[in-house]
Amino acid sequence: MSEIFVLSETRGRVGLLTLNRPKALNALNDQLMDQLGAGLLAFDANDDIGCIVITGSEKAFAAGADIGAMKDWSYMDVYKTEYITRNWETIRRIRKPVIAAVAGYALGGGCELAMMCDFILAADTAKFGQPEIKIGVIPGSGGTQRLPRAVGKSKAMEMVLTGRMMDAVEAERAGLVSRIVAADRLLEDAIETATVIAGMSLPAVMMAKESVNRAYESSLSEGVLFERRLFHSCFAMADQKEGMAAFVEKRKPTFKHM
Ligand code: HXC
C-alpha cells in the first residue's frame, strides 16, 4: 500500500486537504502531488463542496520539491516523463476557489503551490522563498512568473537570485498574501473564510474566480469584456433572482447553486 501523503476531509461545504509528510517538511514528491491532484479533482466534482483549503503542518506548508528524489535525475528523465512538473498543473483545472493556509516554510515548489491557489492566508510564522538558486537550479513550477506578478519585479528578482526568505509581514506588505492570522488560529480562520465563500452562489463564485484570473491573462479591455459577458450571464441564474429578492425583502438568501 502506498503511503497517505495528503489527508482529505470535509467541514460542512468546505473540502480540506492537508499535506502530510511531516518528517520531510512536506517535501513534494510525485505520490504526494498525485494524491493532492486526485483530492482536488474529487472536491471539484462534489456538489456538496463550495470551497477548498490546502494546508500543511505548523512547521511547513511545504519546503519544496523533494530534493532527495530529484538529485540523480537526468535531463532525459525529466524531459520525457515530466516528473514532478507533470502533476503540478492539476490545481489550475480546479474551478472552485482554492485557499492556501500557510504556516511555517513555503519554499521552492511549496511557495509555487501556494501561489497557484486563489489566495494565501498566512500564519504569523509563515516564510516564503524561492531558494532553488542555492541548489543550482531555478524555480520550475511558475515561481519566476507568479512571484513578480504578486510582489513586483524588484523583490521577486532579489528573492529568486539570492534565495532569501520573506516573512509573513513582508509577504502581506508586498501583496503575496491576503491576510496574516495568529498561527494557532490559521486553520480555524481558513475554514471560516472558506465557509463564507461556500455559502455564496457556487456558479457566481466560479465566475468571479474565472474573471479575476482573466486579469492575468488578457488586456484590460479584453478582461472587462469577459467580465461583462459573465455578469450578463448571471441573470440566467436562479441564484441572482434569489439573492436580489432576498436583499429587497430584507432576509437571508437561500442559494440553490444554480
Ligand atoms: C527533501 C527535505 C526538503 C526538501 C526539508 N527536507 N526540505 N527533503 N526535499 N525540499 C527534509 C530534510 O532533509 C530533513 O530530513 C527534514 O526535512 C527536516 O529538515 P531540516 O533541514 O533538518 O530542518 P531545518 O534545519 O529546520 O531547516 C528547514 C529548511 C531546510 C530551511 C526548510 O530544510 C531547507 O532549506 N530545505 C530545502 C528547501 C529548498 O531548497 N527547497 C527548494 C527545493 S527545489 P532528515 O531526514 O534529515 O530529518 C524545488 C523546485 C521546485 O522546490 C520545482 C517544481 C517543479
From TrEMBL:
Alphabetized UniProt keyword annotations: Fatty acid metabolism, Lipid metabolism, Lyase
Enzyme class, spelled out: lyase
Q: Which Gene3D superfamilies match?
A: 2-enoyl-CoA Hydratase, Chain A, domain 1 (3.90.226.10), Lyase 2-enoyl-coa Hydratase, Chain A, domain 2 (1.10.12.10)
Pfam families in the cross-refs: ECH_1
Q: Which GO terms describe its molecular function?
A: enoyl-CoA hydratase activity
Q: Which GO terms describe its biological process?
A: fatty acid beta-oxidation
Could you tell me which InterPro entries the record lists for this protein? ClpP/crotonase-like_dom_sf, Enoyl-CoA_hyd/isom_CS, Enoyl-CoA_hydra/iso, Enoyl-CoA_hydra_C
- Reaction(s) catalysed (UniProt annotation): a 4-saturated-(3S)-3-hydroxyacyl-CoA = a (3E)-enoyl-CoA + H2O; a (3S)-3-hydroxyacyl-CoA = a (2E)-enoyl-CoA + H2O
Q: Which EC numbers characterise this protein's activity in its record?
A: 4.2.1.17
Q: What family is reported?
A: Belongs to the enoyl-CoA hydratase/isomerase family.
Please describe what this protein does.
Could possibly oxidize fatty acids using specific components.
Q: What is this protein called?
A: enoyl-CoA hydratase
